[in-house]
C-alpha cells in the first residue's frame, strides 16, 4: 500500500479523502446513492495507481554527446535513442533529462507509445558558459493516468559527461627574451635520437644521484655507471598555476582564478604552436602524478578544464614538483596571486641561469572590486621580488585581457603594470 500511496497525486489523495467522507456520510444518513458515489471516488484513484505502477517502462536508452569536448559557449548535441524491450507495449510517457544547471534548462519531452522493437530518437542541444566536466543524465520517465490521479516515475540508469574546455585567447607571436636553454631560437644543434634527452653513460662520481645509475651498463662494465643527460633538444616550458583558495578573489568568470586558468590555457596553446615541450604543474596534475609529463594541447586544456581552487598546502607540492622540471633549463611561466612573500621567493628560485622566468602577478583584490592604491603598490612590490632572480613580471588588474598581459610580459623587462590594456608603469 505504501507504493500506491507514493504514486498518488494531490488530486488523487483529494479524491480518496472526499470519497471516504461521502461513504461515511451516506452510511450514516442512509443514502445509498451517496455511498456509491463515495466508493467510486475512492476506487478510481486506487485503480489508476495500480495501472500506473504496472505501466513502468521496459526501454533501453542510449545517450550520445557530440562533441564530448567543446570550448566555452559552444553547443553540443545530445542524442537519446530509445528502443522498446521485450515486455508489454509502453504507455505515453513524459521524459525528464537531468543535466547540470550550467548546461541550460532540463529537456522535457513526451515519449509516444512504443511496441516491442520500436526505436525513437530525440535530439537536443546543450551549451555551457562555465568550463568543467558536466553531467548529462540519468533520464526520468513518468507515466500519468488521463485523470491526473496517479503518476509513476522510474529512473533509467545511464549518464554521459561533456567536458567544457577553458577559453583560449590568441596571443601575439612575440619572440621571448633569453639566451639560454629554452629561449626562443636557442634550440641546441644536436638532435636526440632516442627521445627528448640525449643520454650518454659515464662513470659514477661522488655526489651523483643514485637514481641516475644505469644498471645494465653497470652490470656490463663491473663498475657503477650513471646516465649523463645533455640539455634538451626541444625548448621546455614549465607552466605553474597558483590555485590557493585563500589567495584568489571574485566569483565566476570575473574572478581571478578564472583569469589565471584562461591565461595558462592561452599560453599553453601558444607555446605548443611555437614548438615548446610544455609541462603543466597544477594541484590537479600533481595529485595525479602527471606534472612530469609533456602535455599536448588537448591534454593541457583537459587538465585546466577541471582545475579548481585548492587548499593553501597544495601550492607547496606544486612548487616542489616544478623544481626538478625547471632544473633542466628552459622557460618558467607562473600565474600567482599577491598572497604572500614566502611563496614568491620560492617561486623565484625556479628559474635557472640562462632560462626565462615570466610572472603574471594577479592583484586579486581588484577582481573583487576592493583594491585600493596602497594594495596595488603592495602587489607591485611583491612582484619586484623576482627581479633579482632574472624574472620579468606583469601586475594584472581586473579588466586586463590575457593578450594585453602577454604583450606587456614579452615587450618589457622588469615589472610592469597593465591597466585597461595599456602599460601604465614599468621598472
Question: Summed up, what is this model?
Answer:
Helices cover 32% and strands 27% of the residues. It contains 12 helices and 18 strands.
Q: In total, how many beta strands? A: 18
Distance between the amino and carboxyl termini: 79 Å
Structural class: alpha/beta
Largest sheet: 7 strands, mixed
Rounded mean pLDDT score: 82
Instruction: Please state how the strands of the largest beta sheet are arranged side by side.
Output: 13-12-14-15-16-17-18
Instruction: Please state the overall shape, judged from the principal axes of the Cα atoms.
Output: elongated
The sequence of SSEs as H and E is: HHHEEEEEEEEEEHEEHEHHHEHEHHEHEE
Number of helices: 12
Descriptive notes:
The protein is α/β, with parallel strands linked by helices and 427 residues long. The protein is 32% helix and 27% strand. The chain has a 7-stranded mixed beta sheet with strand order 13-12-14-15-16-17-18, with helices on both faces. Strands 2, 4, 5, 7, 8 and 9 form a 6-stranded mixed beta sheet that branches. Helix 5 (256-273) packs antiparallel against helix 7. The radius of gyration is 32 Å and the shape is elongated.
Descriptive tags:
seven-stranded mixed beta sheet, six-stranded mixed beta sheet, 32% helix, 427 residues, 18 strands, disordered C terminus, alpha/beta
Write the layout of secondary structure elements.
Blueprint: H1 2-7, H2 10-29, H3 32-54, E1 59-66, E2 69-71, E3 75-84, E4 93-99, E5 108-111, E6 119-127, E7 132-144, E8 151-156, E9 160-165, E10 199-203, H4 215-221, E11 225-229, E12 236-241, H5 256-273, E13 277-281, H6 283-287, H7 297-305, H8 313-327, E14 331-337, H9 341-348, E15 356-362, H10 364-367, H11 373-383, E16 391-396, H12 402-411, E17 415-419, E18 422-426
Parallel strand pairs: 2-9, 12-13, 12-14, 14-15, 15-16, 16-17
Antiparallel strand pairs: 1-3, 3-6, 4-5, 4-7, 7-8, 7-9, 10-11, 17-18
Helix pairs in contact: 2-3, 5-7
Amino acid at each position: 500500500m505504501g507504493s500506491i500511496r507514493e504514486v498518488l497525486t494531490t488530486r488523487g489523495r483529494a479524491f480518496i479523502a472526499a470519497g471516504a467522507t461521502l461513504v461515511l456520510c451516506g452510511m450514516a444518513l442512509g443514502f445509498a446513492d451517496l455511498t456509491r458515489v463515495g466508493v467510486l471516488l475512492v476506487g478510481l484513484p486506487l485503480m489508476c495507481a495500480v495501472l500506473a505502477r504496472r505501466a513502468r517502462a521496459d526501454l533501453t536508452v542510449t545517450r550520445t554527446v557530440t562533441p564530448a569536448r567543446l570550448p566555452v559557449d559552444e553547443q553540443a548535441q545530445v542524442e537519446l535513442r530509445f528502443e522498446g524491450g521485450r515486455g508489454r507495449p509502453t504507455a505515453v510517457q513524459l521524459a525528464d533529462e537531468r543535466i547540470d544547471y550550467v548546461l541550460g534548462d532540463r529537456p522535457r519531452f513526451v515519449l509516444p507509445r512504443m511496441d516491442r522493437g520500436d526505436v525513437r530518437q530525440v535530439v537536443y542541444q546543450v551549451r555551457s558558459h562555465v568550463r568543467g566536466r558536466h553531467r548529462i543524465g540519468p533520464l526520468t520517465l513518468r507515466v500519468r493516468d488521463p485523470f491526473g490521479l496517479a503518476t509513476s516515475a522510474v529512473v533509467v540508469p545511464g549518464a554521459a559527461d561533456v567536458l567544457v574546455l577553458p577559453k583560449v585567447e590568441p596571443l601575439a607571436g612575440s619572440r621571448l627574451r633569453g639566451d639560454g636553454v629554452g629561449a626562443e631560437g636557442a634550440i641546441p644543434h644536436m638532435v636526440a635520437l632516442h627521445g627528448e634527452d640525449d643520454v650518454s653513460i659515464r662513470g659514477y662520481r661522488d655526489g651523483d644521484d643514485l637514481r641516475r645509475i644505469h644498471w645494465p651498463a653497470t652490470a656490463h662494465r663491473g663498475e657503477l655507471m650513471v646516465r649523463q643527460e645533455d640539455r634538451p633538444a626541444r625548448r621546455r616550458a614549465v607552466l605553474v598555476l597558483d590555485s590557493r583558495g585563500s589567495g584568489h578573489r571574485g566569483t565566476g568568470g570575473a574572478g581571478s582564478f578564472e583569469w589565471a586558468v584562461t591565461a595558462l590555457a592561452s599560453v599553453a596553446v601558444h607555446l605548443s604552436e611555437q614548438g615548446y615541450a610544455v609541462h603543466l604543474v597544477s594541484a590537479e596534475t600533481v595529485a595525479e602524478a602527471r606534472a612530469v609529463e609533456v602535455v599536448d594541447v588537448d591534454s593541457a586544456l583537459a587538465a585546466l578544464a577541471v582545475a579548481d581552487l585548492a587548499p593553501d598546502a597544495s601550492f607547496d607540492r606544486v612548487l616542489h614538483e616544478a623544481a626538478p622540471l625547471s632544473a633542466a633549463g628552459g622557460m618558467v611561466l607562473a600565474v600567482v596571486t599577491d598572497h604572500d612573500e614566502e611563496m614568491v621567493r620560492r617561486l623565484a628560485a625556479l628559474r635557472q641561469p640562462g632560462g626565462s622566468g615570466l610572472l603574471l602577478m594577479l592583484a586579486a583584490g581588484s577582481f573583487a572590486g576592493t583594491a585600493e592604491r596602497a594594495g596595488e603598490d603592495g602587489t607591485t612590490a611583491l612582484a619586484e621580488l623576482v627581479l633579482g632572480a632574472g624574472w620579468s613580471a606583469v601586475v594584472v588588474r581586473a579588466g586586463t585581457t590575457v593578450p594585453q598581459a602577454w604583450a606587456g610580459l614579452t615587450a618589457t623587462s622588469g615589472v610592469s603594470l597593465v591597466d585597461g590594456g595599456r602599460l601604465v608603469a614599468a621598472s
